[in-house]
Amino acid sequence: MRLVSSRTRKQRLAIGAVAVLGLGGLSVIQALPASAAAGCSVTYTVTNSWNNGFQGEIAIRNVGDAWTSWNLTFSYANGQRVTQGWGGRFTQSGTQVTVANESWNGAVPNGGSVTPGFLGSHTGTNTNPTAFAVNGVACTGSPVTSNPTTGGPTSTPTTRPPTTPPRPRRRRTRRRRRPDRAPRTRTWVAVAT
């Protein structure tokens, strides 16, 4: 016969309870709502133009759940180049332009907007871009909701909790001060040397 300490039994019961609760919690994952709705609308405007240059602004409106940061992407069709920008960090690789938020304008609530501006150059026709995306979601003017896959079980587990009731806790009794003793006090004395 093997002796098992009460501590080991308690640990085993705790591990079993956590396992049962963990399996039960997996069925809750399926009941989670769809992920956050993302959506945006973009208005691209050329505010000024001259020979081979132009000034523009991009009004980005959030029509979905709030953003803590944003990253706009679009492409030029006719070799336009962004030469300077403000209200966002502009980078360009070939025809692809990326505008990331500044530290002060990353948070955009539903219905809020940001409007970065820029200077650009072109040779030939200065055609406006037509496809924009914020944080990887195409700007269609409507929110887009994605439904995440959980990878969890499709049915509720049938494991039942242990039937052994928990042992009642021992009550701790407070040590009472005996009435015949005076309370202790500490006295500090400063001694000059």
TrEMBL record:
Gene Ontology BP term (one): carbohydrate metabolic process
InterPro entries: CBD2, CBM2/CBM3_carb-bd_dom_sf, CBM2_carb-bd_dom_sf
SMART domains: CBD_II
A single MF term (Gene Ontology): polysaccharide binding
Segments of skewed composition (Basic residues): 167-179
Region feature (Disordered): 142-193
Domain called CBM2: residue spans: 33-142
Biased composition range(s): Low complexity: 142-158
Signal peptide, first to last residue: none
Protein name listed in UniProt: CBM2 domain-containing protein
Organism of origin: Phytohabitans suffuscus
